[in-house]
Specification:
The protein has about 400 residues and is mainly alpha-helical. Helices cover about 80% and strands about 0% of the residues. Helix 4 runs antiparallel to helix 5, helix 6 runs antiparallel to helix 7 and helix 13 packs antiparallel against helix 14.
Amino acid sequence: MTTAARARVPHLNAVRRQEERVTPLELFFDLVFVLAITQCTALMAHEPTWRGLAKGMLVLGVLWWSWVGYAWLTSVVDPEEGTVRIAIFGAMAALLVAALCVPTVFDDTALLFACTYLAVRAAHIWLFVIASRDDPGLRRAVTGLAVSTAIGTSLLVAASFANGLLQGGLWALALALDMGGPMVIDPSGWRLRPGHFAERHGLIVLIALGESIVAIGVGSETGVDAGVVAAAVLGTVVAGALWWLYFDVVALVAERRLNNAAPGLERNRIGRDSYSYLHFPMVAGIVLLALGLKKTLGHVEDPLTTVPAAAMLGGTAIYLLAHVAFRLRNVHRLSRQRLVLAVVLVALVPLATHIAALTTLAVLAALLVVLIVYEARQFAELRDRLRHQLET
């Protein structure tokens, strides 16, 4: 090996992460994901049918899994050092192009999306291979992930040459196999920083909630009148309530559970189940809510059609059900009040198609506020003790 070659070797090394805080580069990376979420909402808004919802959720799921991969990666390596920093910028560019393709991802830009998405995932695997050079356990896990990733991305490329049900089926199979890979891969080889991992997922929930605010801002088609003002205020109440339900106590308890888990198998399983898997329905529920808010702001005095009504109320129900599962996974307790409200919201969907959209939004806001007030009163002592213990 020449002297010049030896000098280049260290630049291909990944520096292991030492700090728990999320870095500015990770936040910068997540800004691209903001566009991806917005594009998924736009895709469903353009085709507000059950088929359109299915398309939007498939695309969101695929993009979510790419984001999850980088959350695990940057919990192992420092993203702002050496090769990793450059590769992250390259992945951002590819993800940006993929996000731009979303509105026509099942038509004209299907192949371009598949190719750029493949580049995003390939960079992720490559960086993990570098990071696992001196870690046999991590290398075995990365090898298994590379296999499931290769299958999933290949199916997306194949789907770009199909159409109709076959295309949708290939997308669904690609997502199922890709997300199912970690269930059969030995999780003991993964590495993560619990504080960083929990914070990163909390920030992505914030990003999704930001999309609901954006939907309020772009939803009005008739200017700003009293109805739009009322809808904007109620939409903010709903978004704020979803923030409260996650960040007030739930996120703090879950982070402590992850931090107290034994490093290795136990901690990695919690990270996989509670964060990689169960945060997806939370984000998906918020995106569906954003679709309902966008349609509400467009015509506040008219009833919502079935699909937007199901998106707004059902999306909120999915968000609450994810919280129920999240609590079960972390503290093995059932949140009956959130489960009951989720069922009530689904039952209200038929009514929402016969009353003004603004009224539906008001009912949703009121029910969420009632839930928060109930929990604050019913669990006041426990909540105060948990927040005091966790914040000191």
